[in-house]
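User: Hi! I'm a student and our assignment asks us to look at how structure tokens line up with a sequence. Could you show me two examples?

Assistant: Happy to help. In each example below, the sequence comes first and the structure tokens follow. Example one:
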Amino acid sequence: MRYPVGVLAMYLAGQRLEEISFFRKLSISGRKLGLEILVFTPDDVDKTRSRIHALKYNPAMGKWVRKWTRFPPIIYDRCRYHGLENFRKLTRFRKQYSSLRYLSRPLTNKWSMHQLLSENSSIKPHLPATVKYKDAKELGQFLKKHPVIFMKPKSGTGGRGIIRLQRLRGGVYLMQGRDPNRRILPMHKVTLAQIPVKLRDWKLEEKYILQQGIPLRLKDGRVHDFRMLVQKDGNGEWQITGCAGRIGPAQSVTSNLHGGGTAISMDALLKKRFNSDDVVKNIKKSAYELGLNVMKHLEDKFGRLCEAGIDLAVDPKGHVWLLEVNPKPSREVFYRIGELETYRIAVRRPLEFALWLNKQKISGVTR
């Protein structure tokens, strides 16, 4: 009998699941570990009978089939909100079914995350200066301190709604970015007073933070960063599964793969920039130590976590900067750069951690 593990997801338009390809890989990997992977959403719950109408992948048939079943005892939460209603659905579900064992917990928005990470003396030197957006006056003051800044929504992923501002001469700024639908906004010059006018429908005061810009442009003008995947292994210990570079498309201020970015190995990108094996080695050491410190600190604050994608930048001097923490990371970047074994490990590790958690429960050990 296979041990059931639930994957909590969310329907998009037309009853479509965003990560169905990933869920299929989870199911195949889970079978090899003796697990039954059951994918469901809050909409698939029969509250009157405490059961779910889950999707189960049948490899012999090569398709998904529905199955009524009891709630799995362990839940891998892959819900991505895409709107207030989905956020409310997930919040209600987790509150109503708090007795289930979740592999991880929801984190917090970018502003609160910055404040929490700033409390750790080993992490703080890696954080860009960050403030909440209040008004055009404070925006101007922040731009006086930093020649390049980013305006980011406190919540959101995939590069949506991110604006880059670069200080020019004569009170003029170069503005570019992506709108909330991830479309690239053309580069143009603006005055300080024009910025909130052009973004008047974006609810800047409610939703935005200002962040110091780190030099991310390569010689060809495209921006880049690094995505690190940190996961619990089959012994309940934090491990750096891998780290890869991402290069954004022309005219983009972000490097996200879903926004048209391309992937490259970490070593190749660092060597391209620094041309020194010793420098590359030291940068990687600093990045890996930072990734582990971040996850241990966040677990101390939030409780049990399973994995996170950590976005990093490396400035021209080789200093590593922490840009963002994503608690529901993809692992596609490793597939794109041909690190197939890293990709397989990245898919398998949450399942191995689920097995480890189950063993701890059986043996009466908690952690």
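Example two works the same way, sequence first and then tokens:
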Amino acid sequence: MKKVNIHQIKPGERLAKPILQDNGNVLLGVGVELNERFIDRLRNLGIDILFVEDSFTDDLEPPEAISDKTRQKAVDAVYQTMANLKDQNFMKGRAVAPEMGRQLRQVFGEILNDVMVRGDVMVNLTSIHTTDAYLFQHSVNVAILSGIIGIAKGYNRIQLEELGVGALLFDVGMTKVPKELLNKQGTLTDQERAIIERHTTDGFDILRKQHDLSLLSAHCALQHHERFDGSGYPRGLKRDEIHLYAQIVGLADTYDALTSPRPHRKRYTPSEAIEFLFAAGNTYFDFELVKLFCKHISVYPIATTVRLSTGQIAVVSANNSLAVHRPKVRVVEEPDGTRPSNPYEIDLKNEVSILIVEEL
């Protein structure tokens, strides 16, 4: 398979990975032939990249951080939990979902098990979903990334569960923000921005009332927009004033948000997002935490379609952990636009004169 921008898709190509709805169910499945109607509909749903079948790359499959089954279960748990909490009266000062903590700890335990089985492979987050699914898929992605950082820091099981449950529900306050405001494409007014920023305190108020949920998990909702230099919100905390769980969740949140399509901007590529995070070291985020995080992220995920400085189009076929910006690539189109008679590979670690100039 290969990953390409939807503008590069030609009618007749077939999906190699499914498109997911907000509850995690499949909207379009593997093998579906794309026609103009499907392509236009996917664009309207905010989808900008797709994985499609290609005879030159049919053996390439990005290593998933977690299995499809685990992701489906996690998305469903977040979806149902947020729906239940949204329908409750939060001001009564009581736990409105007494089994919530146990269920989410179980779900995050399955995420951890998948991540640990995966080993040291650099992370690809490859699920493709509609914009309506962003909140739930994003929460699961943040939990995956946070869990990986927690493991790298040597956290014990209790710490990992506190961090993981906090990451799954860190954005629960967003359920109180009007949908039209979340999807607004223009510049936010000061009043609109204040409404959105209130999701941190709203989320904390919701989670702190759950009797089987750690208060430290609730702080992930409260503090994930605080920043290392004190420029964040809601309280302008800085450095060690921000709980480390919230620092981890805030970093994972930023990376996944940057690499996801949003109504007000295009997505960043993984390499662009990593550049942003390094530039934000010791301003938005602790630089040591940034370095630890980026050690586990694939700069050019397998199946990414790229243009080389030679004019060739290629697909990333393997990553190199010792030279993350220099993957092995498989050429699928020559500079004159023709396909090679047989696919062949270039190891950019060895071919130092050849550069990746852009992702397609």
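Here is something you could point out in your write-up. The mean pLDDT is 90.
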